[in-house]
Amino acid sequence: MRYRCHVEVDLKPGLLDPQGKAVEGALPAMGWTNVSNVRIGKSISLDIEASDEQEAIAQVHEMAERLLSNPVIELFVIRGVQENPGLALEDHP
Amino acid sequence: MRRRPRVGVVTFPGSLDDGDALRAVTSMGGEGVPLWHAHRDLRGVDAVILPGGFSYGDYLRTGAIARFAPIMEEVSTFAEAGGPVVGICNGFQILCEAGLLPGALIRNRQLRFVCRFVEVRVETSLSPLTEGLVPGEVLTVPAKHGEGQFVASAEDLDRIEGEGLVVFRYCAPDGAVDDEHNLNGSLHSIAGVRSQAGNVVGLMPHPEHAVDPDVGPTGGQPMLASLLSYALARV
């Protein structure tokens, strides 16, 4: 079975996020003076062949721990594992 | 006659400072040995340098992809056996990603790429780059990076400080460590750390760009001289 998986990676809450700070600094110039705590993370999507959803999640979890994120500075969550009927990449919304 | 220590310099796709590192090793009396990321072969070298640059375009995270290069297995085995391994700039980032050094490097606090000479203070003589140097000594070397802010969890930082793993700190010309001279916002102004065993060391500034008096300060000379004698002592 093929599954479409989404992984979100974010800097740990305690760490300064310079990219988020830069964006936060730019928003007031456009009139949004009511914004704080801007954080910028990564969204990673992939297709994986696995026998069931649990196995797909387990493998993506291991990938996230070993490569997709760095546990020293980042946290990750796996979101939206769904059975994929085999659409081409450009067909994903 | 004393043998010239052979120092391997690994070239990854996107390495930039491999040429300077080879040249610096040679000018300091060693033999520079080019190593290729895709080979599982260290060519019998006495020490390994992972040079600066932007391996694999810094994709995902700096050093994240390079740590899985075939040669990194050999570098890990070499390091476990006590061989001296030095990571400079991107090489430092790779060693942190590989778990051979504690902590991680993130975007500079000031959001800008920095490129200038900096002063670093030697914190320990127990590393391949500082053997024979005196703690407190100040060296001038260039730094050029966008992601050099050293971070670690509170527990890791306590361990790093407690076990004396800090090798260099950014400092004022007189050796004072303060926020003003903290180049990139690194925790505790850390510019370089070593492994627990002491044979793996990484730093953001570039000793290999600072060995020739014709082109600027020579703070890299004592570091590389230390590496060569450290490598020879193990032979």
Account of the 3D structure:
Chain A has 93 residues and is of the alpha+beta class. Chain A has a single domain, classed as Mth169, Chain: A, CATH 3.30.1280. Helix content of chain A is 27%, strand content 30%. Chain A has two helices and three strands, in the order βαβαβ. In chain A, strands 2-1-3 form a three-stranded antiparallel β-sheet, with helices on one face. Chain A is elongated and about 50 Å long. Chain A starts with a strand and ends in a 10-residue tail after the last strand. Chain B is 23% helix and 25% strand. Chain B has a single domain, classed as 3-Layer(aba) Sandwich (Rossmann fold). The longest helix of chain B is centred in the C-terminal third of the chain and has 15 residues. With 235 residues, chain B is an alpha/beta fold. The model of chain B has no long low-confidence stretch (mean pLDDT 96). The relative contact order of chain B is 0.19. The interface between A and B is medium-sized, with 12 and 20 residues.
